[in-house]
Specification:
The complex is a heterotetramer, with two copies of chain A and two copies of chain B. Chain A is α/β, with parallel strands linked by helices. Chain A has helices at about 10-25, 50-55, 65-75, 95-105, 105-110, 140-145, 160-170, 180, 230-245, 260-270, 285-295, 320-325, 330-340; strands at about 30-35, 60, 80-85, 120-125, 150, 175-180, 195, 195-200, 210, 220-225, 250, 255, 275-280, 305-310. A seven-stranded mixed β-sheet of chain A has the order 2-1-3-4-6-5-12, sandwiched between helices. Chain A has a seven-stranded mixed β-sheet with strand order 7-8-9-11-10-13-14, with helices on both faces. In chain A, strand 7 (about 195) and strand 8 (about 195-200) form a beta hairpin. In chain A, helix 1 runs parallel beside helix 7 and helix 9 crosses helix 13. The longest helix of chain A is centred in the last third of the chain and has 16 residues, at about 230-245. In chain B, about 45% of the residues lie in helices and about 10% in strands. Chain B is an alpha/beta fold. The longest helix of chain B is centred in the last third of the chain and has 24 residues, at about 295-320. Classes of the chains: A alpha/beta, B alpha/beta. The interface between C and D is large, with 33 and 39 residues. The structure holds thiamine diphosphate (2 copies) and magnesium ion (2 copies). One magnesium ion (MG) binds next to strand 6 of chain D.
Chain lengths: ~350, ~325, ~350, ~325
């Protein structure tokens, strides 16, 4: 089940392989969630094969999201390493009491007498016509909760390493898996390059990748993105080079909480401008925290305010045309970069 | 001296029990089988059409058909008065919607993402709204919603009933029991219909539902009945008992219907043994009613349905697409 | 039950009077929640007397927070005006599925065929030694949810008018009532002055108050606060005048969502610097959204980055000394103002 | 042909049922009444001391005493083995903590906000942690936590039981039923003790609990018993039956104990009729045991307790205050 088995694999296959690997490495790893058993292996098939190989460590559950995360917390405190699969990220809302008033509190509230090494994996994101309750990007509801870790996958991250890091982490981790990403091939930099971009990747379990179209020369702007917005940011950067001869850097984060913005600040030192990109709704989205931190840490280096590109503050409609209008796209990113010279404060 | 506290008779929830109890209703006799067949056939063909459109790539997103379970929608909803009763449904809601509203075009346009859809294309298959009809795609969360609506109906005093349809899998959600408790305490006109099709998505009931479904209601003081049938006449009779109980006492009721879903959970995701599904086809609710009908009458009914449906499909196709500038 | 009945009333009494008034004005107003009945009248006594006067419109419930908000949504859609009392704001986490996937979605998702005119009232805040699960300021979990309104009370707002506005609103409103505030007297500006400050108040149902120690002359900084941080910001501003001869403006918001920052921007035009003050934890707190908006809208007018004063990202400990250390206080605000001249980016 | 799906015997949850069932245990005989009295008296005086300290302004925050309910803690927890069993409790947790750990100083220091407290002063009265003991102040949420711990214990195979204490009011929380369902499906060694003291804060049971408490467990296939007593001997016997059931079958159990809280919900917030409270004093569990003891023995036991407690108070006062630089 090594990562290098096949040259091109869909992201969901890599996640699946990493889960198999985690089950092999740790006796304590258990998977709990809905519709996990083979031949189905979870609604997005990320859990395929696990129940066949480890029938006593894959626990398919009733539809009881409010309890699942609490059950996992109990398992984790007692020495197991549970992984919870919440079928759609929208349903994380049902678990938030356990997250806010339990999982995130136990270690500190119990004076470090316990650890809660659990992983909650859940798919987020739209663009599949699933409508208002099956398309959201609700990671914003988690990033404000102290003492947990929130990690986002993207197709250019080493997903095998990322999933492994989450499982090995002694803190509770919420792993946000983008739905559209599942079906796309994982693409990794080779020789420090990917798709014509020069790439730098930070060290540590939850790396950020910085992509530059001109070998980290002067840039017009930095776009910080995560999850499903990463390929869109890359496409925007490519089109800006081709169509406008503007060079942008793209920073693809994996750790949303704790937030380590050093790669963003480093890029902003070259570009002097930052655009945050996220698929969730604008207000109090992840971009708000990034903007608040960067305007403070890089006040003297910003030649324009931090701009946020996000979904409008409303529902994600079901009809494809309405959904596309609602979600942030490549054109929105390009527009944000090209209007950087415009009047500040015009749009939020 | 007993340690028991004041009993329910001594203390009533003052906030709710004081309301005027509902009074007038006429029990619904069983409609002619031809009529029931027509309604169920209309639902069946509507949903088969959706699946065809999906397989042709004409639809995107998701859909959950009630193929095999049409008798539940038709048998229960016949008892409801669209003017004063209301229905809340889940992901598998097309049958309930059509049985309650009859608005084929509004539903098809919605699933097709047209502005003429009942939710303007915003909601899609799982998020329908029409007068006295609401659906949502979060399992379980519709039960509190319906409980609140039942409370409003009790407050209104017009004798309306709030009916919510949930599946066996949704019995896993704790809010169901929170609401059984409150509906019981507050004596709300709430009808919970559990369509137990033996599976939740891919999960067989035995892996998700311990104990007994009616006992779960009765433990909260809610009257309950479980029937195992796809015969719309039996379902109509059982639903009549439930509705009568609510109209007469004002108190809630749970009706469990053991049935079977003949199509996939949504589109192609079926992990059940094909032989098992085949074995269930003889209980297809349409087979039950068809066997009772004169073949000519049946043909007449079904052809009329097909014509209606074809017209609906045409109209929906012609309707403006939501979110696309004209 | 008029507002002018007594010259000095505790805030909880004003809220209580406004609720009585709402019950009088609208037949459809109902109160639902735990332990509401007289003689108790709710854990903080805000609901006192209602069940005696309107026994059939006050519904005391089992401990079922996950359902209560959904029940209220059903009542509201069917034409009533329910008010839900969630006993402690910490328990709102139990209701978030109903908020995120129900209440906030129905109107838009159902193509404007319904409205959901409900109010959820809940007390937030610490400083009472109640410990990690009964002291939080979780309004951040609500402010990121589109299509709802989040309103915060403070002791200098007209609480009678504010509560009335919430009840009259056709959108779902979450009213955050500060616990410490309950017991303090409501203090309103008279003749445009309060406690030595000149005061301007915006029009509309959810006003913001701007306080200036030097009649809206040049200011060192603007402190934007809400809820329980308002009196602390006022105290900080007073001490800064007395001890440092520095003039700060304080903007006390009531509407956190939708966020109308016009009064803040106006003040920043005079001060050139903004400090956000909130009792909740820092990351992705309300201050993040304010900072993100203000740095964009007032980019050219800020002489220093927006600074955030908030609780540390962790639990609220129970021991009084630990709790005081953890929560933001007057000294933190004073420190933020006096170090404004310091190096930007030093602290978050 | 039946419409019923595959029964529980045909399909078992593979993830959980495969575990090694717990095997060895020795049933606990009833300890001497003197011993039981000593334990209950220790809890009583500890909590009365807390209330005194509050009224003198020596404590801030909140506290919930189990005055009148000590027999539940002592009678149930005597059956548990602190080395392999675990206990999770709620806001009203001092009695459970003391019965399980005996650590008076750790608890007092915690409530007084001292670094020597069991949670370092971070948790306070409702958020205690000690080996195999955990509490949280959010009603209901501890039931999933305990269910997960029971699962871990089953996995471990050492025969441990996870016990959770909840109140009658907490039966309003849906997660209780989610977990009854899962514990039943997965055959988890979970003991749910419902201390039904007839009130939740100010709410009498009749306004909050419909139907029957044991029936609520049985509806999910969970064995249950309800007893109405404050006699620690009877509670000990009933808890023994529950623990024996779990150790023998591996399956969960619900024990309901109808009791009465003699003090306020937390400190001064009592809305009950004082006459009602007075009437309950003859069932004070300490009165029951005291009546069975030789007066001299009782005096010896109680004086020893007082001395212990006085020493504990002294030590706690001398301990460093959390968050205040030395
Ligand atoms: C809260 C929540 N969890 C999970 C799902 C995903 N889901 C959609 S339908 C379904 C199965 C529902 O089973 P059941 O209640 O038996 O209804 P059926 O599909 O059989 O009609 C699941 C798990 C959901 N929509 N909402
Ligand atoms: C989720 C939640 N809701 C409300 C409360 C506030 N509260 C604390 S104790 C209590 C009453 C609990 O009643 P019961 O379960 O009968 O236990 P008792 O206090 O009688 O021991 C309430 C409502 C809480 N702590 N958690
Ligand atoms: Mg089903
Ligand atoms: Mg109680």
């Amino acid at each position: 089940m090594g990562t290098e088995a096949a040259p091109v694999r869909r992201c969901v296959e890599v996640i699946n392989a990493a889960l198999h690997d985690a089950f092999e490495r740790h006796e304590g790893v258990h998977l709990i969630g809905e519709d996990l058993l083979d031949p189905y292996g979870g609604a997005f098939q990320a859990s395929k094969g696990l129940s066949t190989r480890w029938p006593d460590r894959v626990i398919t559950t009733p539809i009881s999201e409010a309890s699942l995360v609490g059950i996992a917390a109990g398992m984790a405190i007692r020495g197991l390493r549970p992984i919870v699969e919440i079928m759609f990220g929208d349903f994380i809302a049902l678990s938030l009491d356990q997250v806010v008033n339990g999982v995130s509190k136990f270690r500190e509230m119990y004076d470090d007498q316990v650890t809660v090494p659990l992983v909650v994996r859940t798919p987020m994101g739209g663009r599949r016509g699933y409508g208002p309750t099956h398309s959201q990007s609700l990671e914003k509801m988690l990033v404000g909760v102290p003492n947990i870790r929130v990690v986002a996958t993207s197709e250019i991250h080493d997903l095998h390493a990322l999933v492994s890091a989450c499982v090995d982490d002694d803190e509770p981790v919420f792993l946000i898996e983008n739905k559209v990403m599942y079906g796309r091939p994982m693409r990794r930099p080779a020789g420090g390059r990917l798709d014509g971009f020069a790439v730098r990747e930070t060290a540590g379990p939850y790396p950020a990748l910085t992509l530059s179209g001109n070998d980290f020369g002067p840039a017009e702007a930095t776009i910080v993105a995560y999850g499903g917005m990463v390929p869109l940011a890359m496409e925007a950067a490519t089109r800006l080079i081709v169509e406008e001869e503007l060079f942008c850097e793209v920073v693809a984060l994996s750790s949303l909480l704790p937030m380590d913005l050093e790669p963003v600040l480093e890029s902003v030192r070259r570009s002097g401008a930052l655009i945050t990109a996220e698929e969730g709704t604008l207000t109090l989205g992840v971009g708000a925290e990034i903007a608040a931190r960067v305007q403070e840490a890089a006040f003297g280096e910003l030649r324009a305010p931090v701009r946020r590109v996000a979904a409008g503050d409303g529902i994600i409609p079901s009809a494809p045309g309405l959904e596309t209008d609602h979600l942030p796209g490549v054109d929105d990113l390009i527009g944000a970069v090209t209007t950087l010279a415009g009047a500040p404060g015009a749009v939020w | 001296m007993s340690l028991r506290g004041p009993g329910p008779a001594a203390i009533r929830p003052p906030g709710v029990v004081g309301y005027i109890p509902p009074v007038t209703w006429t029990p619904r006799p069983l409609p002619p089988v031809a009529d029931l067949h027509r309604r169920m056939y209309g639902i069946r063909r509507f949903e088969e059409t959706l699946l065809e459109m999906f397989s042709k790539g004409l639809l995107v997103g998701t859909t959950h058909t009630c193929i095999g379970q049409e008798a539940d929608a038709v048998g229960v909803i016949d008892h409801l008065d669209p003017a004063r009763d209301l229905v809340v449904s889940n992901h598998r809601c097309h049958g309930h919607f059509l049985a309650f509203t009859g608005d084929r075009l509004g539903l098809l346009a919605e699933v097709m993402g047209r502005t003429a859809g009942v939710s303007g294309g915003r909601g899609g298959s799982q998020h329908l709204c029409a007068p006295n009809f609401y659906t949502n795609g979060i399992q379980g969360s519709i039960v509190p919603l319906t409980t609140g609506m039942a409370l409003a109906q009790k407050r209104e005093g017009a004798g309306g009933i709030a009916t919510v349809f949930i599946g066996d899998g949704t019995l896993g959600q704790g809010v169901v029991y929170e609401c059984l408790n409150m509906a019981s305490l507050w004596e709300l006109p709430l009808l919970i219909v559990v369509e137990d099709n033996l599976y939740a998505q891919t999960t067989p009931r035995a892996l998700a539902v311990a104990g007994s479904v009616p006992a779960r209601a009765e433990a909260f003081g809610v009257a309950a009945e479980l029937i195992t049938t796809t015969d719309v006449r039996q379902i109509h009779a059982a639903a009549g008992r439930g509705v009568e109980h609510i109209r007469a006492t004002g108190a809630p009721y749970l009706l469990g219907i053991e049935t079977y879903r003949l199509a996939a959970h949504s589109k192609g995701d079926d992990t059940r043994d094909p032989a098992e599904i085949e074995g269930r086809r003889e209980q297809d609710p349409l087979a039950v009613t068809a066997s009772l009908l004169d073949p000519d009458e049946r043909t007449r009914i079904e052809s009329a349905c097909e014509e209606d449906l074809a017209r609906t499909v045409e109209l929906a196709h012609a309707a403006p697409v939501a979110g696309v500038a004209a």
